[in-house]
Amino acid sequence: MKKTISSETISFRIDSHLADEVKRKATEAGASSIHFYARELFLSALADLAIQDEVHQLREGLSEVSQELLELRHDLQLLLVRVVFVLTELSVEEVEGALFSDSPLGDESEA
Description:
Elements: H1 16-29, H2 34-87, H3 92-100
Helix pairs in contact: 2-3
């Protein structure tokens, strides 16, 4: 990856026990310095936030699509009932019963 010269410097102070922990983790990770390690942690956290934002946006979009599909299914159901009603001499209730009952079509074994 090509290194670019940054135009901004960000620095902050941390408590000594936290600094010791960061030094330990930097050493374990094989980082060249605590500053480099802290920079990588910071940039990684920013990238994670961006990913989390994208996931949130995708979930919102999926929720909208799901709602639209439910509405389309409802519209299709109404349309199907209307078509069968117009093409047959059945009442709307009979059409809905025939189309949406749990019993298989052609089951004429009514008591």
